[in-house]
Amino acid sequence: MPYEYLEDIAIADIAFRAWGKDLEELFIAAGDATINTMIDNIDAIALQETRQFNLNNEALDMLLFNFLQEFIYYKDSELLLLRPQQVNLEKEAGIHHLQAVTQGEKLNPSKHYQRVDVKAVTLHRFQLEKSADGWQAMVILDI
Amino acid sequence: MADIKSLKQISDTIWEIPISYKEGMRVPARIYGTEKLIQEMDDAVYDQVTNVATLPGITKYALCMPDGHFGYGFPIGGVAAMDVENGGVISPGGIGFDINCGMRLVVTNLTYDEIKPYVKKVVDRLYERVPAGVGSTGFVKISRNEFRKVVEKGARWCVENGYGWEEDLELIEEQGCIAGADAAKISEKAIDRGFNQIGTLGSGNHYLEIQVAKKKDIFDPELAAKMGITQPDQVVVMFHCGSRGFGHQVATDYLQVFLKVMESKYGIKILDRELACAPFDSPEGQAYFSAMKCGLNMSFANRQVILHRIREVFSEIFGRSAEDLGMHVVYDVAHNTAKLERHVVDGKKRSLLVHRKGATRAFAPGMMGVPDKYQHIGQPVIIGGSMETGSYLLLGVPSGAQSFFSTAHGSGRTMSRTKARKTFRGEKLQKEMQTRGIYVRSTSLSGLAEEAGGAYKDVDEVIEAAELAGISKRVVRFTPIGNIKG
Description:
A: 2 helices, B: 15 helices
C-alpha cells in the first residue's frame, strides 16, 4: 500500500501521503488512497466496469488534482467505485496529457464497507514532488 | 497547540494577531475563545486566519470563531468581510466545497416520555427513509433540466411539488431561495453529481438527530417559547447537511477558474492556492457568485425534502399527522456561505461580501433578513454539537456587529479523523452510547468512530465563549437521544 493517512495534518478532513518509483505509480497510489478514504475494503471492489480518463493540464500537480477528482465524480454521478489500473503520462508542447484505465463496480453497501464520503480534493498544502527514490504527493481531501 | 503568549489579549474571549505577524497581512486577525479553547486550538488556525488577512478588500479583521480549527484555505470558523466597492474578492476557499452546509431545527409537541418507547423505531425508520453515506441517492427522481429549476428555486421548488408547507419557507434563511442563482453558470459535471442526490444526508459530520430540551437546559423560557420550545422535555429534530456533490463540484470548478486568472489577469498573489479568488465585480467573480447561489438553493431544497421525509416517518409511527404533531420549522441557517450584506464599519454603512466558513450568521433583533416572527428577538442560530454531548439554539445580539453578526457553528474538532479512528472503536462506541440513552445508526462504523465526542471540543465552553464575547446568546441546550450518522 504505497500511501499512508496522516494523523497530524487536517482535523475534520483526511490527509494522505502517497508515493511511487515513477509518476505513473504515484498517480495509481493516490487514486487508491482517495477511494480507500471512502471504502475500507477496496480489495472487495470487483473490476467489472471500465472507465477511461483523458485529461490535460499545463501543470503536472493540477493534473493529479484533476485525476483524483474523476474518482469522486464517478462515485457521485454513476455510483461507481473505480480503481486505477493503468496510467500513462506524456508531455507535449508544454501540456501534460494523462490517459488512464480504471475499473470497478457500483457501490454495494452490503459488500463495500463505507468509511466517509469525499467531497473534494483541496489545494491546501497540495504537493507533488520528486523524492529520493521517485515521486511523492501530499493531499488533503475534504470530508 | 497554540502559543498563547504570541497573541495580544483584547478581552477574556478575544485574542489578536497583529499585522506584523506575517508579510502581506492587510488587517489583524482575531480569534474568539476562552483561554482554555485558545490553548487547545491547533496551530494551523493561526496560519490559515493570517493567510485570510492578506486577501484584497478584507475589512477590519480576519476572524475565527471559538469552535475554530484546521481547515483548508480559511480555518473552519473563519469569517472575512470583503469590501466589494474597493476591490474585495470572492473566494471558494472562504465558503467551503460544501456550499450552504447548514442546520435545520424542527419542533414536535411530543415529550421525552412519549417518544421514549419509540426512539429505536423512529431512528430505524428514518435511517431507511433518509439515505446517508458515500454517494447515496435520494427518492426524488427528476430530469437534469428539472434539477436546473431546483437549483434556481431552492426550497420553493420543493413546496410547489408537495414536499413541505408554505409556512416552512418563511423560516429558512433567504426564504429558502436566494435570488440571482443562475443555472447557466453551472457545469454539466455538477448537474451529473447532484441531480439524483436531493434528500440525502451525506457523510462525515452530517447527521439527523432526535433531541430533548431538558428543563434545566432551557435558559430563557420566554425566548424559547417564541421559537416553539414551550415545555420541558420537549422533543425536537435537528439535522446537518449541505449541497452534496453538486455544491462540491461548483466549488471545484471555480477554484480552477480563479487559479487561472487570479494572478495573470488581476495581479492577486495569495499564500495558499486554496484561497484562489477573483475580484467580486469581475466576470469570473460574478459567475461564481451566481453558481454558488445555485449551491445555496440545492442545499435548502435538500434539507426541505429531508424535512418532508422526517414528517412522514413521525406521522407513520405515531399515527397522527405532522400538523397534529406540531412539526414546525424553527429555522434553517447556513454556515458555509458568502453573502452580500450592509454593515456599519467605523460609522459608515458599507456593502460587504461576508464569507462564513464554518461560522453562522447571527443577525440581531430588527435587522433586515430576520423573519418577521423573530424580528423582536433576533435570528435563531442552530449549533450542532458532537453526537455524544449536545447541541444549542442561540439568538443573534446587537453586540454581534463586532463579528459582522457571525458566531460559531458547532463544537469544533480537536482530534483528526485518522487519529480518532485509531483511538475509538465504532461498535463499542455505539453500544456505550446506547447504554447512555442515545440510539445511533450509521452507514459506517469507522465513520462513527471518527465522530466520537472525544474528538471534539467542549461544546458548552464554545457556546459560553460566544456569549461572553457578545456574538450570540444561549437560549436552549438539547440532549441527543437518537442519531443517524452519515
